[in-house]
Structures are given as structure tokens and as C-alpha cells.
Design goal:
Elements lengths: L1 E6 L3 H13 L2 E7 L6 H14 L5 E2 L14 E4 L7 H8 L9 E4 L2 H6 L12 E2 L10 H11 L2 E7 L2 H15 L6 H10 L14 H15 L24 H11 L1 E10 L7 E10 L11 E8 L3 E8 L3 H13 L24 E2 L2 E8 L4 H11 L4 E6 L23 E8 L2 E2 H9 L21 E5 L3 E3 L5 E3 L5
Helix pairs in contact: 1-2, 1-10, 6-7
This protein binds NADP nicotinamide-adenine-dinucleotide phosphate.
The site of NADP nicotinamide-adenine-dinucleotide phosphate (NAP) has 23 residues, from helix 1 and helix 4.
Length: 478
């Protein structure tokens, strides 16, 4: 059993402890927190101890840790304090636990303020994946990216709270809810995205810490951005906060929306560029379409050209999950067991349902075709939804020589399409492959040309709301 020590027992590490207990692969040896007796913490502690079936050991200071009996494989830190760097130093110097004991952190403020202690030759005993964009594997991707490529720039939405606020303000203009800045801030506090008042998020500092860490990896710079390069959606400085009316101007006259954008870029001639600012972004861009509390990053590089990633950038569950992934990256903790196969087989085609399909076929321009197909589909239990038929000459472009599948008969052939309601892949495949193609119509005319490959079919991939209110591409269960 691998062992971990926890520093800070707040939102994030409470979830780390829950997930570690549920995994049954990790032993929690101690939890260091400056105020473990707070009521809310005691309640969570009780709940976890009940599911674990034994007591957890809490200590209030690092001096209580014993160099031998308290030694663990990994320390997991999530305090939010910049001076929590003292714990990393204590592990390295006083306890002499060195590189053998991994230090995993989600604390972007601490990392950004002490970059040299986390990068360069000093980074063998630290993992910081959860410090930027929580569950998104951004740090790993970017680190691997630059191993063989040259990152030229990064543009992203790195603060989910403010993205949620801007998104809500904009949407509510058009659905008449007219949510003001204060209203959306209250809502993001209620949903647990922001601290009361939104400190750290709304002034742009949180996004700036994350961009600073990414810039360290991409451009190998320990430089700190000056304060005037960081502006949030309400920075309490000289400028007004973002207001609903700004969206109306941006939308109506500039086909744009407003996002808190973090952007950093290199150039061979001048210093790297770093900016966290509310910006107008064109409606058609990826970044304009990042909704709710999601995070997004696009990376421009010399060889891969453009890579982007989007997903849950905050919240205890994805953050804790990323931290535990860092824990398992430690050589002593890697889970190399292959005794348990998580997936033993893939779902077969009769069990893969889509709520809509489009079928495209080719036939002679003669009566009776659709009736024949639809009757056949009826016997297979498939309902037809809509039919689309272009007339000869309406195809929109001339056939090319390669497309003249039907040779001399090409001009007699009509493509047509129809949609079906819910059906399984297996049923649809079977219906099309058993359709009699030698059928004649009431006038005794053939309705299909003498070739077998007359149909193509496509599932309509639709985004639906899942039980948690998330828009997802989902495949129907039945
Ligand atoms: N929330 C997210 O979605 C998210 C996502 C990614 C990363 N993170 C990062 O994760 C870290 C923790 O966030 P959180 O939401 O869990 O914060 P939190 O709920 O405030 O928890 C922090 C805990 O650490 C304790 N603490 C603070 N300073 C300490 C110190 N010097 N020594 C020992 N204990 C100390 C706090 O005690 P008190 O109760 O006395 O203050 C509290 O129990 C932050 O760095 C944050 O930026 C958060």
C-alpha cells in the first residue's frame, strides 16, 4: 500500500482524501492542517473516518512530523498559501526526505511565486498538474509538446469563475433574465465557483498565476508580469467593470463576445508577450464558444501548428483526480497491476442506438422507390422521419469523371435522402443490406440500377443534457 501525507484539509484535499480512500490503493498516514477543529472540517473528517473504518491522524504543524515514522511516498498540498513553500523546503532540508518523497500541489499562487523551486533541475520531486486548469492535463501536454516542438504562443481561458459570469451576463441579455455583474457573481459563489466577492478570480490574478506557470514551461522564463498586464473583469483599479451593455455593442456591431483572455507569445525579436485582459473575441472563434466554468487553451507551435484543449478547469472532483494522477506518477505508487481489466468487450452494434439516422440512396427517377424502401423498413421496425429529394439539375454542381458511378445511366439516377427515428446500428445495417434491389414498380420498370453500393447511412450525433445538466455527445442506451 502506498502512503501519502496531506497538507491543508479544505475543499480540494477533502476530496483528495475521499477519492484516495475510495481507491483502496493508498494509505493516508497524516493530515496537516492549521485549524482541523473547524466545524465543517470535523464533519467531513467524521464522514470519511466512517467509510474508512478507522481514525485519521491530524497534526497542526510540520514540526510534529517524525523523520522516520511519518515518512510517506507522496505529500499532497492544497492550502492556497504562498508561504506553503515552507513545507517543500522542510521536506527537502529538515526532514531530509529529498527526491524520494514526491510533493504534489494544486497551489498556483505558491508555484507562480516560487518558480525556480519547481522547475529546472529542481523539479524531480514536484508535480503541479492540478495547479493549472485543474483536471485538464495541460502541464503534461505542454511539457511533452516542448520536448520536440517550439511553442510560439498560447491563448486561453484559464479562469472558470469569470467565464461563467461573462457567459451568464451575455446569455441573460437575450433570454430577458438580464443578470447584472453582481447577480452573476452571487450565483457563482452559490455554485461554489468563487469565494465571496470573487477575490483572485475577478481581478485576473488567478488566471495570471496559471499563465505564468505555463509560460515558465513553454518559454523557460522565470519573469513576473507587471501589474498593468493583468486586468480582470472588475479589477478595482481605474476602469469600469464589464457591464451587460458592453456585450450588446460587441455582439451587434463587432460580431464578437467578451472573454477574459490569457495570452502569452514569443518572438525572436522582442521579449515574450504576456497579457490577462477582458477582450473581444470574434463569434466564430473556438474561444468565443467556451461556456460556463470551462477552461480552454490553444497552443501555437512550430511543428504541431495548433493544438487545443477544453474542459473542467475547476472544482474539487477534477482537481483531486488530477492530484491523485500525480500521486500515481511516483515510481513507488505507479499502479502497474494488470490483473483487473476495466473493459472486457465493446458494445455490439445491436446495442448502439442513435435517436436519428440519415440514409442516402441512389435510384432511377421512377415512381415506387420510396414506398418500396419504407415498407421494407416498416417490417424491420424502423420509422421514417423526413424525406429530402433533390431533382436532377439541383445537385448544385456537375459530377466529376470519378463520380460517374453509373456510367451512361448517370443522368437517369437520382440521389435521395431520408431520416429515421431511433434505431440501433445493427437494425439499420440489417434493413439496408436485406432491401431487395431487383424490385420492379407497378409499370414493370426496374427502380434500382445494377450495382450493390447504393446506400450510405449516418448517425446524427447530437448533444444532449446529461443528468448533471452537462451538454454531452451521448449514444442512446436503448
Ligand atoms: N477550488 C478549486 O476548484 C481549485 C482548483 C485548482 C486548484 N485549486 C487550488 O487548491 C488550493 C486549495 O484550494 P481549496 O479550495 O481547497 O482551499 P480551502 O478550502 O481554503 O482549503 C485550504 C485549507 O488549508 C488550510 N491552510 C491554509 N494555509 C495553511 C497553512 N499555511 N498550513 C496549513 N494549513 C493551511 C486552510 O485552513 P483554514 O480553514 O484555517 O483557512 C484550509 O483548511 C489552492 O491553492 C487553490 O488555488 C483550487
Amino acid at each position: 500500500m502506498k502512503t501519502i501525507g496531506i497538507i491543508g484539509f479544505g475543499n480540494i484535499n477533502q476530496e483528495v482524501v475521499r477519492q484516495a480512500v475510495a481507491s483502496k490503493k493508498i494509505e493516508i498516514k497524516w493530515i496537516l492542517d492549521r485549524s482541523p477543529s473547524k466545524k465543517a472540517k470535523k464533519e467531513v473528517r467524521k464522514e470519511i473516518e466512517q467509510s474508512l473504518g478507522k481514525k485519521l491522524r491530524f497534526v497542526k504543524s510540520k514540526e510534529k512530523l517524525h523523520p522516520e515514522t511519518d515518512k510517506v511516498d507522496v505529500i499532497v498540498e492544497a492550502t492556497g498559501a504562498i508561504d506553503a513553500i515552507e513545507y517543500l523546503r522542510y521536506k527537502r532540508n529538515e526532514l531530509k526526505w529529498g527526491n524520494e518523497v514526491l510533493f504534489v500541489t494544486a497551489n498556483k499562487a505558491m508555484v507562480a511565486n516560487h518558480l525556480p523551486e519547481f522547475f529546472g533541475s529542481n523539479n524531480n520531486d514536484v508535480r503541479i498538474e492540478a495547479a493549472v486548469a485543474a483536471g485538464l492535463p495541460l502541464i503534461k501536454s505542454l511539457s511533452e509538446h516542448i520536448a520536440s516542438d517550439e511553442v510560439q504562443g498560447m491563448v486561453g481561458i484559464l479562469n472558470g469563475t469569470t467565464n461563467f459570469m461573462l457567459d451568464e451576463m451575455e446569455k441573460s441579455i437575450y433570454d430577458s433574465r438580464n443578470q447584472t455583474y453582481d447577480m452573476v457573481l452571487d450565483e457563482s459563489v452559490q455554485r461554489g465557483y468563487a469565494e465571496p466577492g470573487g477575490a483572485g478570480d475577478v481581478d485576473g490574478q488567478d488566471a495570471a498565476y496559471k499563465l505564468q506557470i505555463l509560460s515558465r514551461i513553454a518559454f523557460r522564463t522565470d519573469a513576473s508580469p507587471s501589474a498593468d498586464l493583468i486586468r480582470g473583469i472588475d479589477d478595482n483599479k481605474n476602469f469600469d467593470r464589464v457591464r451587460s451593455v458592453d456585450f450588446i455593442y460587441a455582439n451587434k456591431y463587432l460580431e464578437s463576445t467578451i472573454k477574459l483572455v490569457a495570452i502569452a507569445q514569443t518572438s525572436s525579436k522582442v521579449e515574450p508577450f504576456f497579457l490577462v485582459y477582458p477582450m473581444l473575441v470574434p463569434d466564430y472563434s473556438n474561444i468565443a464558444n467556451i461556456e460556463g466554468p470551462d477552461n480552454y487553451i490553444g497552443i501555437y507551435s512550430k511543428y504541431l501548428v495548433y493544438t487545443d484543449m477544453q474542459g473542467k478547469g475547476a472544482g474539487p472532483e477534477p482537481t483531486a483526480c488530477a492530484m491523485l494522477a500525480d500521486v500515481f506518477s511516483h515510481k513507488n505508487c505507479a499502479d502497474n497491476s494488470d490483473e483487473k481489466q476495466l473493459i472486457t468487450a465493446f458494445r455490439n452494434s445491436d446495442e448502439i442506438y442513435f435517436s436519428r439516422w440519415m440514409v442516402r440512396g441512389s435510384c432511377y427517377d421512377r415512381p415506387g422507390v420510396l414506398a418500396h424502401i419504407f415498407q421494407h423498413f416498416e417490417t424491420k421496425g424502423i420509422n421514417i422521419d423526413e424525406v429530402f429529394q433533390l431533382q436532377i439539375g439541383e445537385i448544385g454542381r456537375k459530377w466529376t469523371a470519378e463520380e460517374l458511378d453509373f456510367g451512361n445511366e448517370q443522368d437517369k439516377i437520382l440521389p435521395f435522402a431520408f431520416t429515421t427515428t431511433k434505431a440501433s446500428l445493427g437494425t439499420l445495417q440489417e434493413a439496408l443490406s436485406t432491401l431487395p434491389l431487383d424490385k420492379k414498380n407497378a409499370k414493370g420498370q426496374k427502380i434500382f440500377p445494377n450495382t450493390k453500393k447504393l446506400f450510405a447511412f449516418y448517425p446524427v450525433l447530437e448533444r444532449k443534457l446529461d443528468a448533471g445538466g452537462l451538454q454531452k455527445f451521448v449514444i442512446e442506451e436503448e
